[in-house]
């Protein structure tokens, strides 16, 4: 029930209530939420308060609005562990999903300073710039731009990029991938992401920058990705 005498704001109580219903499966992905009017009369609260709670749930990706129809429960977010240096293909396989890639562009560039630094090369070294949409069971999850020195991996082809890059590096080229660092920050989508991730203007994304190194310390890749924040959460196990 909603407690009007509680110091906890009413909109927050309703928000938490709906979240619990989603987490416990009382409301399933694809289910339509009761209307603002229904919530307002059920809890004897104002429609404004209901709207505030629902807008918060929309912004956090729990539900989404469909114009002229109603508000629906979103697909469950993917919980991505942060411990292992895994590939997108491996991550999806591990949860029984099929990874596919849509190649947006694939070219060889003269690297800008940020790329030469990350890959520890000079500006005369040609670099692949690869942009792929990464899809899970056909749904776009992330837009990923990868920079790799052409001298390090000379034979990347469009065909190859339909498959796993890590698999090619390790199993076809026999190079051992060692470690990586990753920075994650929040943002909202730009025009390119709106188009390729199939989301609305203003949608949240998680920007990830990964630097990956081979076992011998050679920088393998610099990857800048935008993950849909409505589909993805990152989790880490901590010990004390
Ligand atoms: C992940 C990695 C990316 C790597 C890719 C290889 C993040 C943020 N990025 O998407 O750095 O290049 O996997 O995937 O996790 P693939 O082997 O399936 O091509």
TrEMBL record:
Question: Which stretches are annotated as coiled coil?
Answer: none
List each copy of the HTH gntR-type domain by range. 8-76
Q: Which InterPro entries match?
A: Bact_HTH_transcr_reg (IPR050679), Chorismate_lyase_/UTRA_dom_sf (IPR028978), Tscrpt_reg_HTH_GntR (IPR000524), UTRA (IPR011663), WH-like_DNA-bd_sf (IPR036388), WH_DNA-bd_sf (IPR036390)
Entry keyword Transmembrane helix: no
PROSITE patterns documented for this protein: HTH_GNTR (PS50949)
- Keywords of the record: DNA-binding, Transcription, Transcription regulation
Q: Does the keyword Transport apply?
A: no
Taxonomically, which superkingdom? Bacteria
UniProt GO MF annotations? DNA binding; DNA-binding transcription factor activity
Task: Supply the name of the protein.
Answer: GntR family transcriptional regulator
């Amino acid at each position: 029930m909603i407690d009007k005498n509680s110091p906890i704001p009413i909109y927050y109580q309703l928000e938490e209530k709906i979240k619990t219903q989603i987490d416990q499966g009382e409301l399933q992905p694809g289910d339509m939420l009761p209307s603002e009017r229904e919530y307002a009369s059920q809890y004897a609260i104002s429609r404004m308060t209901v709207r505030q709670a629902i807008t918060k749930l929309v912004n956090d990706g729990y539900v989404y609005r469909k114009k002229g129809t109603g508000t629906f429960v979103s697909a469950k977010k993917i919980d991505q562990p942060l411990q292992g240096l895994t590939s997108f293909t491996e991550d999806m396989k591990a949860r029984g999903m099929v990874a596919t890639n849509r190649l947006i562009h694939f070219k060889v560039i003269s690297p800008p300073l940020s790329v030469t630094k990350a890959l520890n090369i000079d500006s005369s070294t040609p670099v692949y710039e690869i942009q792929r949409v990464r899809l899970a069971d056909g749904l776009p999850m992330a837009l990923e731009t990868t920079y790799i020195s052409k001298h390090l991996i000379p034979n990347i082809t469009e065909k190859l990029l339909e498959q796993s890059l890590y698999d090619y590096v390790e199993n076809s080229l026999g190079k051992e991938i060692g470690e990586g660092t990753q920075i994650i920050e929040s943002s909202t989508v730009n025009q390119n992401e709106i188009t390729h991730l199939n989301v609305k203007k203003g949608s949240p994304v998680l920007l990830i920058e990964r630097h990956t190194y081979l076992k011998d310390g050679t920088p393998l890749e610099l990857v800048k990705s935008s993950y849909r924040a409505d589909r993805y959460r990152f989790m880490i196990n901590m010990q004390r």
